[in-house]
Design brief:
Length: 631
């Protein structure tokens, strides 16, 4: 396509130039023809006058006897033949076409016919005859003189000279104009071409090289380091929760965020490499480096540059990104290898929840492959209803009565064995199955609760874990109310548990989702409290009414005074904010005793009851009911 455009452009330019030059030379031809005609007329008329003069002189010489009759006859013949050429010669047509010339020539020719006999009869002694002839000749000499003068200086000549000038000027202007417009056209076409090229190779939003151009850049960079025996790092960057930002805050905010990210990445890499946007929220940076530490340091610097708050018209956003890095030649020697390894490392960072910056390691590929296989099996398992929920009771610590049950996902895959719910959720989020999975858990748990209510345990609540991605998609309220409608459950019996490792809690959209859920009458518990990023301002802003103290604090409760003080502080904080506290992971009686002593309302843990299938839960509920009746 590019070659076709170039060829067309060259042909157009050549045609244009050729036709301009052809026009110019045509005008020059005209000028040359007209000047030649003027010159021809002038020359012919002066020749005629000359011949007349010579004939006249031959007559004078005959009379003075300095020349003979033959000389006079020769001059007469020459004069006649001159008249004949003027009358018939094709090259003399312009002369004949001069007004008044043709009749004069014809009458002169007739006169010569009449003179012929007299001239041939002349002798040197015929003085009277010679004088008479000369007198008659004088009339024609006068005429020839006039024509001659006219042909050099008459109005016609001036007019023709003016025309020539005019044509010359016009054709020069014409040629100049054509060349100028041709040049301009060429310039415009080239500019357009350059613009199209830029657009084809750059991302419109950020101005960075796009995916297509990136492949050329990395190819070049790789050939260079291969030649120079250098090293190259590929840093793959992916923003966390970009889709949620776009959905909740609007595309304009999303666009400004991407532009800001592009500027920060470009500023950070500077002269050391190049940044490209591969699409969506995916950026890639190539860096030429000397020591591995330089590449590691750059990955950290890129991450830090992205973690600074972005100022928005209605507040600020703390973007979070994951970076995966692969190195040439350590991890791969071809572009596909390097890109796929950087991508694997980036995915690892995204889903490990341990680190945001990750260097590729050989085992990661296998993990990724396993997750891909898991995703396929998981999809089938959801469709075939092969997943199960176990329930772990949450007890009131003062009375020992069951308050609620937490639904926990279980999957014993025939192919892969038991898969932990955390890995399951990660796989589902990675492969776009999180929504369906959460919906399945929600409706399954609500249906089960409905059964328990019908069996007489109508005070029972159910806690359902919601993965952060779903919470950020903003459709949660609709999904939840749909499930509640389908099962006919009382909204106040549903508690949604949300882990606090979402970075989006600053955004209005997330607060709105929570608000909507609270307005529906649903309780919201902040799960694994103390391990995530929540600050006091989150607790103040978010409509949460339950806190679940993470089991890591409970585990150290009896041995670590700091853990004890922290739990104590959390409980009093929750109390002052009018929130219910649940302690997770109670495994020892002394932990339970300390929690009771600190006034913790609810508790959950292996000591009290492990997560169990529905049947076992039925028995436990019946036991619990019997116990509370007897009490
Ligand atoms: P979580 O919501 O904090 O759930 C409590 C986890 O602690 C459960 O692990 C439970 O079995 C475990 N646990 C309970 N008592 C004790 C104890 O005394 N000691 C110890 N060490 N552990 C205890 P599980 O079932 O493996 O679930 C792990 C995490 O996976 C859950 O943490 C939750 O974040 C997530 N998860 C589980 N089911 C679901 C689900 O249906 N949807 C979503 N989105 N996440 C789920
Ligand atoms: Mg939970
Ligand atoms: Mg928890």
């Amino acid at each position: 396509m590019k070659t076709f455009k170039l060829i067309s452009l060259t042909i157009i330019t050549l045609l244009f130039g050729a036709s301009s030059l052809y026009g110019y030379y045509r005008d020059l031809e005209v000028v040359r023809y007209v000047s030649a005609t003027i010159k021809g007329i002038g020359w012919s008329s002066s020749e005629l006058e000359m011949e007349l003069l010579k004939f006249d002189q031959s007559l004078t010489a005959l009379m003075a006897q300095t020349a003979d009759e033959e000389n006079a006859q020769l001059r007469f013949e020459l004069l006649w033949s001159r008249i004949d050429t003027l009358l018939t010669g094709e090259e003399n047509r312009p002369v004949r076409e001069q007004p008044g010339i043709l009749p004069m020539l014809e009458s002169f020719s007739r006169q010569l016919e009449r003179w012929e006999g007299r001239v041939y009869a002349l002798t040197a002694g015929d003085r009277a005859e010679i004088t008479a002839l000369r007198q008659e000749l004088a009339h024609y000499r006068k005429l020839a003189r006039e024509i001659n003068v006219e042909s050099f200086s008459g109005d016609k000549v001036w007019q023709q000279l003016d025309i020539i000038q005019d044509i010359r000027l016009r054709s020069s202007l014409y040629l100049g104009g054509l060349l100028l417009s041709g040049g301009l056209m060429l310039l415009l076409l080239l500019r357009e071409n350059r613009r199209n090229r830029h657009m084809a190779y750059h991302d419109m939003l950020t101005g960075l090289p796009n995916r297509m151009y990136f492949y050329q850049l990395i190819d070049k960079a790789l050939s260079r380091v291969q030649r120079e025996r250098g090293a190259l790092a590929v840093h793959m960057v992916d923003l966390n929760s970009f889709k949620a930002i776009n959905d909740s805050l609007g595309h304009e905010v999303g666009d400004s965020l991407l532009r800001e990210i592009a500027v920060r990445l470009s500023d950070t890499i500077g002269e050391q490499g190049q940044v490209a946007r591969l699409g969506g929220d995916e950026f890639v940076i190539i860096q030429q480096f000397e020591h591995i530490e330089d590449a590691e340091l750059m990955a950290t610097r890129l991450f830090e540059s992205l973690s600074r708050d972005v100022q928005l018209p209605d507040g600020c956003l703390s973007p979070q990104a994951c970076i995966g890095t692969s190195l040439y030649p350590k991890h791969g020697t071809t572009v596909p290898e390097l890109l796929s390894h950087a991508d694997t490392a980036m995915y690892y960072a995204k889903h490990s929840r341990k680190t945001m910056v990750q260097m590729f390691e050989p085992g990661m590929d296998e993990r990724r492959l396993r997750r891909q296989k898991l995703a396929v099996s998981l999809q089938a398992a959801i469709e075939q209803n092969l997943l199960a929920l176990h329930y772990q009771p949450i007890f009131r610590l003062n009375s020992g009565a069951i308050e609620s049950v937490e639904a926990l996902l279980r999957w014993n895959s025939a192919e892969h064995g038991f898969i932990s719910p955390l890995e399951l959720i990660a796989v589902a989020e990675q492969h776009g199955l999180a929504h369906r999975l959460n919906e399945w858990v929600l409706s399954q748990a609500c249906r089960q609760l409905h059964c328990w209510h019908q069996a007489g345990f109508d005070w029972l609540k159910v806690n359902v874990n919601i993965s952060p991605n779903i919470f950020m998609e903003g459709e949660l309220a609709r999904t939840v109310s749909g499930v509640l409608r389908d099962t006919g459950l009382d909204v106040s019996t549903l508690v949604l548990e949300i882990t606090e490792d979402t970075s989006l809690w600053d955004t209005a959209g997330s607060v709105e989702t929570l608000q909507e859920l609270r307005e529906l009458g649903i309780e919201i518990a902040l799960d694994d409290f103390g391990t995530g990023y929540s600050s006091f301002s989150h607790l103040r802003q978010l409509p949460i009414n339950k806190l679940k103290i993470d089991k890591s604090f409970v585990a150290d409760l009896s041995t670590d005074p700091r853990a004890f003080n922290l739990v104590k502080a959390i409980i009093s904080l929750a109390e002052s904010l009018d929130m219910t506290v649940t302690a997770e992971g109670i495994e020892l009686p002394e932990q339970q005793a300390l929690l009771q002593q600190l006034g913790c309302g609810l508790g959950q843990g292996y000591l009290l009851a492990k997560p169990m299938p529905v049947e076992a839960m039925n028995d436990l509920l019946s036991q619990d009911q019997r116990r509370s009746r007897s009490a």
